[in-house]
Amino acid sequence: MLAYEEEVSGYDIKKWADWSLRHYYWSPSFSQVYSELKRIENHGYAASRMAGGDGGRNRRVYKITDAGRRAVRIWALDAPVDPPMLKHGALMRTAFGHLSTPDTLKAMLREHVDRVEALQHRIAVDAVAAEAEPAWAYARIAMRWAERYYASERELALELIAEIDAADEVFNAGKRGESFPRPRPGHWREIEEQVKATEDDD
Amino acid sequence: MLAYEEEVSGYDIKKWADWSLRHYYWSPSFSQVYSELKRIENHGYAASRMAGGDGGRNRRVYKITDAGRRAVRIWALDAPVDPPMLKHGALMRTAFGHLSTPDTLKAMLREHVDRVEALQHRIAVDAVAAEAEPAWAYARIAMRWAERYYASERELALELIAEIDAADEVFNAGKRGESFPRPRPGHWREIEEQVKATEDDD
DNA sequence: CGTTGCATGTAAGGTGTTACATGATTAC
DNA sequence: GTAATCATGTAACACCTTACATGCAACG
Fold it and tell me: Do A154 and A115 sit in the same domain of this protein?
């Protein structure tokens, strides 16, 4: 973020993250922002000064250094990209749906859909602000990605809701029958064998 | 997982998580599995015993207790669901695309697409094993969700790749013009005002 | 008889949060 | 004047990973 060359404060960075980064990565807490900025400065990647000493607020603003520019270049060009990581609480709850009831599950997923819709609406509005600035061209396509991502998330959740009742019937049919197969130790090997039999590539 | 009523070891749980949970939530490291199981036992939610003492391997298997069943019921029915959290490294890299080059970006995203395709293929194969067991009816719909999620992730990434060049042109056009608007302190307020002007609900 | 998989754990450290503490400025 | 926002930080702790350490069993 400092690589935008602007002098920014910790507060600015947190707001920037809330505005766009949180929709596809994460938004740090204030306390982390402030401690990371200190760490960055100790590494020599940024230099800070107090801005607006008289009249203005007590803001500590950071500016990127040459070493910081070199480091961020290496990050952008050479650093390995971690695979995306998704922690989807609503879906995990669904995966353990047999501990709950179909109605509770569907209500939970409908709430999830509402939240996603709110986020989708929010980023659609925020993305408008990014349209005007050529400097934010890349931030803009990321935000448009997030908008489409929310749309897809919403559709997938709606499909899931429609599948709950059928899953519950299958589950209960299994319980009624006297044999109720459960995960057994060693069944992983069986699955692995099935997988290897199906796979020729990889 | 213990609520499936089967006696399971830490190793079993890790393999179970690798098989399905990791596609929509996360898979813990072995070391965390073992320490969490101890914690769960100390809380009285599970009881362990050594299995296969003579002849077999030294396995510590855990079984859920009544207190554990009560706790997991409360979790399944009443515990608030955290909003899904997505950490998408490839997309963050794209959002800071002006620090890289269009070609580097596109190659990075193509690699991302390859990885997603591999995961999609993998869960499609694994989900087959869940078809047979009525007890896994809910796990199955979660895995099918994940399959569709990967399909959507792939399409979204492909669209992103197609948008890179246009974004780069906009970015460079901004640099050529003498005015290159950057994020300014205080511009968040302006955005908030725009947002409030557009919003009537929320 | 050596590689892979099964199986369990400890120690150290990184990442990130919540709670707490403080105080100035702006808007209504 | 009081509520919201701007603004910065410390302390404690939760969560999770990597590196390390160990040993047995099964497969070819």
Answer: yes
Q: What pLDDT is recorded for position A199?
A: 40
A54 is a domain residue: yes
Q: Find which of B61, B87, B106, B159 to mutate to test the A interface (most A CBs within 10 Å of its CB).
A: B87
In terms of domains, do A95 and A162 share one?
Answer: yes
Q: Does B2 touch chain A (CB under 8 A)?
A: no
Question: Total domain count for chain A?
Answer: 2
pLDDT value, residue B51: 85
- Considering B25, B54, B78, which residue would you say is the last residue of a domain? B78
Q: Is residue B144 situated within a structural domain?
A: yes
Nucleotide nearest to B32 (CA to C1'): D16
pTM confidence score? 0.89
Q: Considering only CA atoms, which of B14, B40, B41, B165 is closest in space to residue A183?
A: B14
Residue A172 covered by a domain: yes
Report yes or no: A195 at the B interface, CB cutoff 8 Å. Answer: yes
Domain, as residue range, for B37: 2-78
- Point out the nucleotide closest to A35 (alpha carbon to C1′): D9
Whether B112 and B155 map to the same domain: the answer is yes
Q: Is A201 contained in some domain?
A: no
Interface touch B138/A171, C-beta < 8 Å: yes
Q: Are strands B46-51 and B59-64 parallel, antiparallel or unpaired?
A: antiparallel
Please calculate the CA angle B185-A141-B171 and round it to the nearest 5 degrees: 65
Rounded, the Å distance between the CA of B30 and C1' of C11 is 15
The segments of chain A whose pLDDT lies below 70 read: 53-56, 177-202
A74 and A111 assigned to the same domain: no
Non-local CB neighbours of B171 within 8 Å, separated by 6+ positions: A134, A135, A137, A138, B97, B98
Spatial distance from the CA of B116 to the C1' of D27 (Å)? 33
A22 CB less than 7 Å from any atom of strand D: no
Query: Which residue among B84, B174, B199 sits closest to A87, beta carbon to beta carbon?
Result: B84
Buried residues in B16-28 as b, exposed as e (16+ CB within 10 A): bbebbbbbbbebb
